[in-house]
């Protein structure tokens, strides 16, 4: 999913309310017909709607402005103006909308769910509302109220069964490419993966699970360094985490602890998830070195060894993931 778009900012504007009418009834046999102005219609709302057929925010990427219809003005004979049409923004499940201050307006959790982002302005009252014993023929009506406007930020937290966690160059893209049909960019430099890639991993008996290759973490991500929070945000939605430590790391257990610490700093609940530790690029290791690396880890956190290049250990890795997901 190379076109994955997870962040879009759009200027939104709800519709103005229609003005009330200040009409006075004039009929042939009723010389003092009095006020009969109708109310204005409300302006259209701006509404975010969940759409299970959408997987990314890509359709919104080039949308800069969204504007709902204004309400129609009221008319004589107490006719109320029509409401302005609401405008809908279809987004994938897992999308969060925030205002310009970064406050969350709402989150889409299911298909067809609707969240009103901006309310249309109320229609003004017609002059018939202002008739009284001391003012039989009011010649004024309310104007419609303004709609709301401002920027809305849409963020998508990807939904995947297993999220790959590791430093740049840990071999996440290589693993995803070797176990699924995904074609992520692969190169030997930091942050090749700037947006998440999703792959469907085939398992035994026609079963499958979704794996997400997420942008590489670096120390300080929790403070916003590197890709920072944009990376960590995606991890929140993964069912289990698969830590990847490359075979050529200088200290495998220390690297795992750094990754673990970054997640804890960002959100301690992330470590409540099930996780698997793995050593990637294990085609570089002989059995002696594997034993040495394994000895660095506590008994309850022994790593699995695999190579995305040669395929070594991939079946065992998929078995371990499936067991965590459905065990």
Automatic annotation (TrEMBL):
Annotated signal peptide: none
Residues that hold GTP according to the record: 166-173, 191-195, 213-216, 280-283, 307-309
OBG-type G domain ranges (all copies): 160-326
EC identifiers of the protein: 3.6.5.-
One GO CC annotation: cytoplasm
Example GO biological process: ribosome biogenesis
Main location, first listed in the record: cytoplasm
Alphabetized GO MF terms: GTP binding; GTPase activity; magnesium ion binding; ribosome binding
Cell location: Cytoplasm
Pfam families reported in the protein's UniProt record: GTP1_OBG (PF01018), MMR_HSR1 (PF01926)
Sequence positions that bind Mg(2+): 173, 193
PROSITE patterns documented for this protein: G_OBG, GTP1_OBG, OBG
Quaternary structure note: Monomer.
NCBIfam families (UniProt xref): Obg_CgtA, PRK12297.1, PRK12299.1
Protein name from the UniProt record: GTPase Obg
Organism: Chryseobacterium oleae
């Amino acid at each position: 999913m190379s076109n994955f778009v997870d962040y879009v900012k759009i200027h939104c504007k709800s519709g103005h309310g229609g003005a009330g009418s200040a009409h006075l009834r004039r009929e042939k046999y009723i010389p003092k017909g009095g006020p009969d102005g109708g109310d204005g219609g409300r302006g259209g709302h701006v509404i975010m709607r969940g759409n299970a057929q959408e997987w990314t925010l890509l359709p919104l990427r080039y949308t800069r402005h969204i504007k709902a219809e204004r309400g129609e003005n009221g008319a004589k004979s107490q006719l109320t103006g029509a409401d302005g049409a609401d405008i809908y923004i279809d987004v994938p499940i897992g999308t969060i909308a925030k205002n310009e201050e970064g406050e969350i307006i709402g989150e889409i959790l299911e298909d067809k769910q609707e969240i009103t982002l901006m309310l249309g302005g109320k229609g003004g009252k017609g002059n018939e509302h202002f008739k009284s014993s001391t003012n039989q023929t009011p010649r004024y009506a309310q104007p419609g109220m303004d709609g709301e406007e401002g920027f809305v930020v849409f963020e998508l937290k990807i939904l995947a069964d297993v999220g790959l966690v590791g430093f740049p160059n840990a071999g996440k893209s290589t693993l995803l490419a070797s176990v699924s049909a995904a074609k992520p960019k692969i190169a030997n430099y930091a942050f090749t993966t700037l947006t998440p890639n999703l792959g469907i991993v085939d398992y035994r008996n026609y079963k499958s699970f979704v794996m997400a290759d997420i942008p590489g973490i670096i120390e300080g991500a929790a403070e916003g360094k590197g890709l920072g929070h944009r990376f960590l945000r995606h991890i929140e939605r993964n069912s289990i985490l698969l830590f990847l430590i490359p075979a050529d790391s200088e200290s495998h257990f220390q690297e795992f602890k750094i990754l673990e610490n970054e997640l804890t700093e960002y959100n301690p609940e992330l470590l409540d998830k099930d996780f698997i530790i793995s050593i990637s690029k294990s085609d570089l290791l002989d059995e002696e070195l594997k034993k040495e690396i394994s000895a660095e880890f506590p008994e309850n956190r022994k790593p699995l060894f695999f190579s995305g290049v040669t395929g070594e250990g991939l079946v065992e890795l998929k078995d371990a993931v499936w067991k965590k997901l459905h065990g």
